[in-house]
Specification:
This protein is an alpha/beta fold. Helix content is 36%, strand content 24%. The protein is built from twelve helices and 17 strands. The chain has helices at residues 5-16, 33-48, 93-108, 135-140, 146-151, 160-166, 195-199, 237-255, 291-311, 331-343, 358-362, 389-407; strands spanning 53-56, 60-65, 74-80, 117-122, 171-173, 182-190, 204-209, 211-220, 224-225, 260-262, 266-269, 275-276, 279-288, 315-324, 327-328, 349-353, 367-373. The strands form three sheets. Strands 1, 2, 3, 4, 5, 6, 7, 15, 16 and 17 form a ten-stranded mixed β-sheet that branches. Strands 8, 10, 11, 13 and 14 form a five-stranded antiparallel β-sheet that branches. Helix 3 (93-108) links the parallel strand 3 (74-80) and strand 4. Helix 1 crosses helix 3 (93-108), helix 1 (5-16) packs across helix 12 and helix 10 (331-343) crosses helix 12 (389-407). It binds glyoxylic acid (GLV) and manganese (II) ion (2 copies). One manganese (II) ion binds at residues 80, 91-92, 125, 189.
C-alpha cells in the first residue's frame, strides 16, 4: 500500500482538535474559527508537498497537482470539513484526509499522471451553520448564485458571504465550474449506515445517492393563558404540530423500504410552560432514491399538515428549504472502483447512499463516483461515529488508484 494509516490517523487527530464542542462530539461550522483551523492544517500539509491552494466560487478550497500535460480537464477528489452540531470525527474529514494522503503518495512516489489532479474541500456540506446543505458545491456548479448566498443567513443573521469574508476567504476564481474542465469527481466517505458491516465488507461502491427534500412547516394558532383557557377554546399550535409530526413517521413507514422522513428541529413560541403555544415551526427531511416516490412522500406530509391544521383552526405554511434530486453515479467509475478494490483483494458491495453528498451535485455536470468505508454500528452524525484508520487507508489506496487511472 502506498497510503499510510499512521499519517491518516495523525491528520484526523489534528483536524478534530478544531472542535467547538469538546467532550460532546465535534462541532465545526463552516467559516468558524474551528473550521478555518482545520482548513489551514490541510492547506499547510498540501504546501509541504508543493501544492498551493486557493479558493473558488462558494468558498471551496482547491489545490492542484499539475499533470504532465499543461492543459486538459482535471480529476478531482475530496470531501468536506464542516460538521453537524455535536457530530462525528469522520463524516467529511475521512474523505479529506484520504485525498490528502493520496496526494502525498502521488508526490512522494512521483506517480505519473497526464491530467491535473485536484483536491477539493467543499464548504457547508452539512447545512449546520446556514440551515441548508451542499451550498459550496451547489454554488460552484451554478445551481445557486452568489446573490442567493448573500441572502442565506445563519442564526445570528450573518450571511454566507459575510461569514466567508469574515473568515478571510478571498475567492480567486469566481467562475462557475465548467463541465469541460472536469473529467471526474471521486469522493471517499464513511458509509454512515451498517450495510458494509452486515455484509462483512470493507469497501462500498455507491451507485446512487438519494433525493432529499427539506421543508419548514409553520403552524400558527393563538397564544393564550394555559390556566384560564378551556380546552375547547384553544388554538394550540403545538397540539396540531404534534399530530403532523406523528404523521410524518406514518408517511415514511407506509412507503416501506427506501423512504425515510425525519423531524429534527422544533421551535415553539413563546416557549413558556404556562402559555399555550401560538406558533410552532419544525423541519421535515424526506428522502427516497426514486424521484416520484420522493415527491409523493413530500405531498403526503403536506396533505396531513393541511388537514390537521384545518380541523383545528390553525394556519399552516410549508416552505421547501432545500432540494436535491436522486442522482446516479457514473457506471464506468463504479466499475473502475470495483476493479481497483478487487485488485486489493476486496469484494466491494454496491449500494445507494442515504446521505447527501457534494459529489451528487457535481454528478449533475460530470462523471462521478464514491467509495464508502465502514461505519462502526452504522452510527453517524453523533459522537459515537467511528471508522478504523486501516479502512480509511484502504479506501484511500483505492481512491488513489482510481484517480490515477482516470488521470492517466
Ligand atoms: C448530510 O450528511 C445529509 O445527508 O444530510
Ligand atoms: Mn458528509
Ligand atoms: Mn453528514
Amino acid at each position: 500500500m502506498r497510503t499510510r494509516k499512521d499519517r491518516i490517523q495523525k491528520d484526523l487527530e489534528a483536524i478534530n482538535a478544531f472542535n467547538a464542542s469538546p467532550g460532546k462530539g465535534v462541532t465545526r461550522y463552516t467559516f468558524s474559527r474551528e473550521y478555518q483551523g482545520a482548513l489551514t492544517y490541510v492547506v499547510e500539509e498540501l504546501r509541504r508537498i508543493g501544492v498551493n491552494c486557493s479558493f473558488v466560487l462558494g468558498g471551496n478550497l482547491l489545490g492542484r497537482l499539475a499533470g504532465s500535460e499543461s492543459s486538459g480537464p482535471s480529476v478531482m477528489m475530496g470531501s468536506h470539513l464542516d460538521t453537524v452540531a455535536q457530530g462525528g470525527r469522520f463524516d467529511g474529514s475521512a474523505g479529506v484526509v484520504a485525498a490528502l494522503e493520496a496526494a502525498r503518495a502521488v508526490r512522494e512516489e512521483d506517480l505519473p499522471h497526464r491530467l491535473p489532479i485536484d483536491l477539493v474541500v467543499f464548504a457547508e456540506e452539512e447545512g449546520g451553520r446556514f440551515g441548508w446543505g451542499l451550498l459550496g458545491s451547489s454554488t460552484w456548479s451554478g445551481r445557486i448564485t452568489p446573490g442567493q448566498l448573500a441572502q442565506i443567513k445563519d442564526r445570528e443573521g450573518v450571511s454566507y458571504l459575510e461569514a466567508m469574508e469574515g473568515a478571510g476567504i478571498k475567492v480567486r476564481d469566481s467562475s462557475i465550474l465548467s463541465p469541460s474542465s472536469l473529467k471526474a469527481m471521486l469522493e471517499l466517505h464513511i458509509e454512515q449506515g451498517s450495510i458494509l458491516e452486515t455484509r462483512n465488507s470493507r469497501i462500498g461502491v455507491v451507485e446512487a445517492i438519494v433525493g432529499i427534500k427539506q421543508m419548514i412547516v409553520t403552524i400558527e394558532g393563538s397564544a393564550s393563558h394555559a390556566g384560564t383557557t378551556p380546552m375547547d377554546l384553544r388554538r394550540d399550535a403545538m397540539q396540531g404540530a404534534a399530530r403532523i409530526i406523528a404523521a410524518v413517521e406514518t408517511v415514511a413507514r407506509q412507503e416501506g423500504e427506501g423512504g425515510v422522513a425525519t423531524v429534527g428541529q422544533v421551535f415553539c413560541e413563546p416557549g413558556q410552560a404556562n402559555v399555550i403555544p401560538g406558533l410552532v415551526r419544525f423541519s421535515v427531511d424526506v428522502r427516497h432514491s426514486d424521484e416520484s416516490r420522493l415527491k409523493a412522500m413530500a405531498a403526503g406530509v403536506a396533505y396531513m399538515a393541511e388537514n390537521v391544521s384545518k380541523s383545528r383552526d390553525l394556519r399552516c405554511r410549508i416552505e421547501v428549504k432545500a432540494e436535491a434530486e436522486p442522482v446516479k453515479m457514473s457506471p464506468e467509475i463504479c466499475d473502475l472502483i470495483e476493479k481497483v478494490a478487487r485488485e486489493q483483494g476486496i469484494e466491494p458491495v454496491r449500494m445507494t447512499s442515504g446521505a447527501g453528498h457534494d459529489t451528487g451535485i457535481i454528478a449533475k455536470i460530470s462523471n462521478a463516483g464514491m467509495i464508502f468505508v465502514p461505519s462502526q454500528g452504522g452510527r453517524s452524525h453523533c459522537a459515537e461515529e467511528f471508522t478504523k484508520a486501516e479502512d480509511i487507508a484502504l479506501g484511500a489506496e483505492i481512491l488513489l488508484e482510481a484517480v490515477l487511472a482516470l488521470a492517466r
